[in-house]
Design a protein that fits this description.
3 helices, disordered C terminus
Length: 159
């Protein structure tokens, strides 16, 4: 459980790519995170270095991200950071940083968003395990209900 959890605030840099895989839906996009700092000499905010992350989303988060995100939109991404180095011939290995997303949302400090709940995937209905109907009818006392139910449903209708 020694995972590095991060929260990155930035802009969607590439259109999300959605794929159906054998293990379920998956989506990925690039996230640009630019630091900003106050430049005392100029008296203005200045952009610093930009870091790029590949954000991976799975299952329902993948479908929702693909349907909701567009290039340039400000987002907040929370997830597990994974840094890896890919060896190259005759060169120093290329490093990349991925975020395995747990949550993705629009950055409401920089705009508004309209939330729409998605339907859950179709599931088979559970078997009917409802017990007897224990409510009393208007004008009935609990004692009358119990005795009528002991005689069967036809007797309950007649009383």
């Amino acid at each position: 459980m020694n995972e590095t959890m991060v929260c990155a605030v930035g802009n969607v840099a590439t259109q999300p790519v959605y794929r159906e895989t054998a293990s379920g839906p998956s989506a990925r996009f690039r996230l640009a995170v630019t630091s900003r700092y106050w430049d005392r000499e100029k008296g203005t905010w200045t952009d610093g270095h930009t870091n790029f992350f590949t954000v991976w989303a799975n299952r329902q988060l993948a479908a929702n991200a693909a349907a909701s995100l567009s290039v340039g939109e400000p987002v907040v991404v929370q997830g597990r950071l994974k840094v890896r180095t890919e060896p190259r011939e005759g060169q120093q290995g290329r490093m990349s940083a991925d975020i395995d997303a747990v949550a993705i949302g629009h950055d409401l400090a920089r705009g508004t968003s309209a939330f729409r709940r998605t339907g859950r995937p179709e599931q088979t209905a559970p078997p009917d395990r409802s017990g007897p109907h224990w409510e009393t009818r208007p004008g009935e006392t609990p004692a009358e209900t119990g005795s009528a139910r002991q005689r069967g449903p036809e007797a309950a209708m007649l009383t």
